[in-house]
Amino acid sequence: MTPLKYSYTILLHPTSPFNFDATLYKPDHFPTPDHFWQPGTRWQTMRWAGVPLGLKFEQRGTSVQPKINLNVFAQQQLSATYLDGLVAEIRYRYSLDLDLTNFYARFLNDEHLGPVITRWQGMRDLNCNSLYEYLIIAIVLQNATVRRSVTMMQNLLENFGDLLEYDGKKLYCFWEPDLIMKVAEVDLRALKVGYRAKTILRVTESFANNKISEEALRQKPYPNQRQALLDLYGIGPASVGYILSAVFHYLDELQHISPWEQKIYSKLFFDRDPNDPIPADEMIKFMTDHYSGYRAIAIHYFWEDLFWQWKFGKADWLNEFIRL
DNA sequence: CATCAGGGCCCTG
DNA sequence: CAGGGCCCTGAT
Fold first, then answer.
1. What Å value separates CA A126 and C1' B3?
2. In the predicted model, is pLDDT for residue A324 greater than 80?
3. Cβ neighbours of residue A181 closer than 8 Å, sequence gap 6 or more
4. Which secondary structure element, helix H or strand E, spans residue A222, and what is its range?
5. Would you say residue A162 has pLDDT above 90?
6. How far is the CA of A179 from the C1' of B10 (A)?
7. Which CATH superfamily is domain A2-98 in?
8. Are A199 and A139 in contact (CB under 8 A)?
9. What are the extents of the domains in chain A?
10. Fewer CB atoms near the end CB (10 Å): N or C, chain A?
11. pLDDT tens, A212-258?
């Protein structure tokens, strides 16, 4: 275990309005031991430029004049230049500069989306991870129930991650791709990841060998990004959809609806029996007709609204389809 | 006890 | 372009 002795305090100013808890906590994300949330505070590990860090985000200011008190914990001193780069990255990952004015203006009076926007005004999507890390998460999600995904992610973090101790919390930080490169496939399989072991190795290899670079990919146009992701072994349309919306922040991403989402959407958007779902292409057409330009963020608002209800026991029908 | 599908994707025909 | 196979696990 690594204690993080040094700490730095930085005041962040997100764009207004900002909903701290709805942005920094997502009841639909499966729990991983790299973060901890309580109202008004999120602890989150992060590896940036090879340095394992402990982050603590605290709510300050108001929704209209929002501030975030960010504490950065590290085992060594951090330079001002390093911290500047880190803050820029955090602003990008956590969508702190996102301007949803047009989205709100267009849909505030929408019969269905309007009330949801009113409830969650200032909420953004959340991605705390690098592209590489998110790919690992996407891989453990594939063809598994949530409970299994949780186990797989825990096993991986416990074996390859760094356990950090800071601010009274003990949390794992993701590993560097180079570390997994030295691991044999059988050893990965021993962690109950199954055939995903091969995928994890091949994706890791692409990063370790610089065949793909997140920094470079961010500068490319959308079709190239999509293709580069699909070119990764074991990464298909479902994973790519999550990554384009979450990691690259495409607010209109909607090319693929997987069966489990299709079931939930059927009830959520069409009040239909989830086990007799609307065809996916029909759903995409519906979303395009209603929310074009903002399909992903619109769905996110509905989705989070539903999962907050579920968290407080108000949408028990979901249990059957989440299988935590 | 056996069988099966799960928050996909690859590969083959 | 359809469909079998894949690691494992919990549900049935």
1. 39
2. no
3. A201, A204, A205, A208
4. helix A222-230
5. yes
6. 26
7. DNA-3-methyladenine glycosylase AlkA, N-terminal domain (3.30.310.20)
8. yes
9. 2-98, 131-246
10. N
11. 999 999 999 999 999 999 999 999 999 999 999 999 999 999 999 98
